[in-house]
Amino acid sequence: MKKISIVVPVYNEDAVLPLFTSELDKVLKRINDYQFEVVFVNDGSTDGTYDLLLGIQKGYPNLHIVIVSLTKNYGDEVALHEGLHASTGKAVIVMDCDLQDPPALIPEMISKWEEGYEAVNARYVKRKKDGIFSRLGNKMYYKTINRITKGHQIPLNVGNFRLLDRDCVDYILAHPAGIYRVEAAHSTNHIAEIDYVRDERKRGKDHYNTRGMFKIGIESFISVSSSPFQWMFPYAVGFTIVAITALVAEVTLFILIVLYVIMNSALIWVILIISIALDVILIVGAGVLTGLCTATHNIYLDLNKEIAYKEEEIVSNILRGEKAS
Ligand code: UDP
Ligand code: MG
Fold this sequence. Notes:
By secondary structure, the chain is an alpha/beta fold. It contains 11 helices and 8 strands. Helix 2 links the parallel strand 2 and strand 3.
């Protein structure tokens, strides 16, 4: 019997975990021809998630639950990587545990895989509550990253939720510095898509805010750029242009003051005020750009630290259910 793994990153999810597990169990019970393994990656939760997982492992022996515990909260990118690492199925389905990724889609994903597709992406056709900025940001992210990466396109509106053949999983694991959704898109050409409506999470709180999304955006760009200078370059050019313009404004200001002293006319006053305002705007702009460069660079350093991690330092233990072997 073929084995299929379900990999689920979990961070402080005690509110929704019981509901998720029972929904998943209901769906998997109706699929007879496969053996399943559910790999929960506890991403350094500080609530009751870990104890709940231990209870769930005992309560659902048919799910062959594996619990991978991380030493601290690393974020779902690292959690996913560790989950894929611990999985043993011929195919792996990655999904969130807040029921935004409906388990009901699993049978269709599997039948697409059996048709010969190596990856099956669940693509959301509509997000009920997304605001205009979120949608716009999302679009810009994918447009830009697809322009940078040549070859495989990163699909719009596809998150963690996908089925990946073992070959794709091996590809992703061979690129530990990569971003999951970028590497998954690069791992094969045989991709099917299933559309679904993405609801809000059923219980608990979302973990990603704007800062988190900015971080993952930057990380994606870094991960597809061959050198850090490649992505620092536009910032550096922008900064230089601002600095040179500020210099020109300063010189103009100096000349105007001289003219004022010589001519003392009202027009000179107007020009002087406009010039000062322009100068202030440029200096603020230069400050913002410098901040952006520094933030980007810090994220790059962070990411490099994460790339250099050793698995033993990240995973504290892996508990496989008795019947999970
Ligand atoms: N998650 C994680 N580590 C984190 C944050 C989130 O493992 O640091 C998990 C979380 O438990 C969930 C999935 O990643 O299963 C997606 O998180 P969330 O639903 O908060 O993200 P969103 O749906 O807002 O993108
Ligand atoms: Mg969610």
